[in-house]
Amino acid sequence: MNKTQRIAAATVVKVFGGASLTAALQDVWRTHADLSAQQRGAIQDLSYGVLRFYGQLNILLELLLNKRLWDENLRCLLLVGLYQLIYSKTAPHAIVDSAVSAAQDLNNNKMVRGLINAVLRNFLRQRTSLLERATKTEVGRYSHPQWWIDKLRAQYPHYYQAVLDASNQRPPMTLRINRRKIPIREYQDLLNQNGMSAQLLANDALELVRPAAVEKLPGFTEGLVSVQDMGAQLAAQILDARDGMRVLDACAAPGGKTAHLLELAEVELTALDSDVARVTKITQNLSRLSLAAHRVAQGDASQPSKWWNGEYFDRILADVPCSASGVARRHPDIKWLRRESDLFQFAEKQRGILDSLWRTLSRGGKLLYTTCSIFPEENKLQVDSFLRHHSDARLLPLSGIETIEGQLLPNSHHDGFFYALLHKV
Fold this sequence. Notes:
The protein is an alpha/beta fold. The chain has helices spanning 2-16, 21-31, 37-52, 54-64, 72-87, 92-102, 109-125, 127-134, 138-142, 146-155, 160-166, 184-193, 230-239, 256-264, 276-288, 333-337, 342-358, 380-389, and strands spanning 174-177, 198-200, 206-208, 225-227, 246-249, 268-273, 295-298, 313-319, 361-371, 393-396, 407-408, 417-424. It is 47% helix and 14% strand.
């Protein structure tokens, strides 16, 4: 266990150094190719757990120490130990002993081992009182940055606590069935035959009772099913593309929504993304599902002159880059890497994309503006500004889903998304 603790701590150090958790873990897998599947799972769980509850864990560590630690690796190793003592079922003495052993590569080895032993055992002795003291601050109670908490409280005074709690839960694993290959009920029966239970949600998404490795999903390789959040599956349904239409998915990678659009209708679809490496993922996803787009290309959605041939689109999906604040439970590093000032930078980029794509939409066409954010600067305020500056734009009502002015807040069944369906009159 000490190896997994040590590597998890080093992973968290990289995140606080500015790397995304996804990139940090990918680097771990490349560097430690000898890790077993069990070790990989443990490292991933510890890394995600520490970042998910970092607000609470960091305050606890401050209460246990007289001054800030001189070594970031040591600090993160203690955070890993505290996370395990609170949230894992492993025997406390085993966690402490293993954490002490994991410090073997740190400077001042003997002193460091004594410090780790003292801090973690002190937590065990004062566990109840320390946990209670940590909840007296909002950062400790909700494990989100204070600016994040303040913004949500101001925007959603009746819902912000539920949103913060939902963002700290493990996300559900939800499936989208490729209806071109198999009916939903038939695939649900196939899951049951393989010992997997799933709940059918309102928009025909299937939520697994217990998450499973992708490769264990029946028919995944053959393209029967994809993993996609219930909230994300709404995009293709809201856009309502019909057979024969020209459709643009403007920020398409890795291709989940692109594929869904092609599963629902026979359309002439162009899938675009600015990242050439991620464009490859679109092609790979479509190939697995036996789907074909009219065109898959690299291009900046804010610069149509470089990729648009002048033929107008009937439908446009603009799933624009954003803070990803609505999917923080899937990417807990976002909470600690984002700054409030980032929202204004995202908003500026989103405005440029929206204005540019509007010029490529046919009269009578529809554009679906969407983000996986829960902040109004990227969502409602963005759309309000767009409507003020475009007299030919109308906001259409969203049918079949309950939102707060287009905002879908994260809960036990889906992540947080914003949807605005715009009609070009």
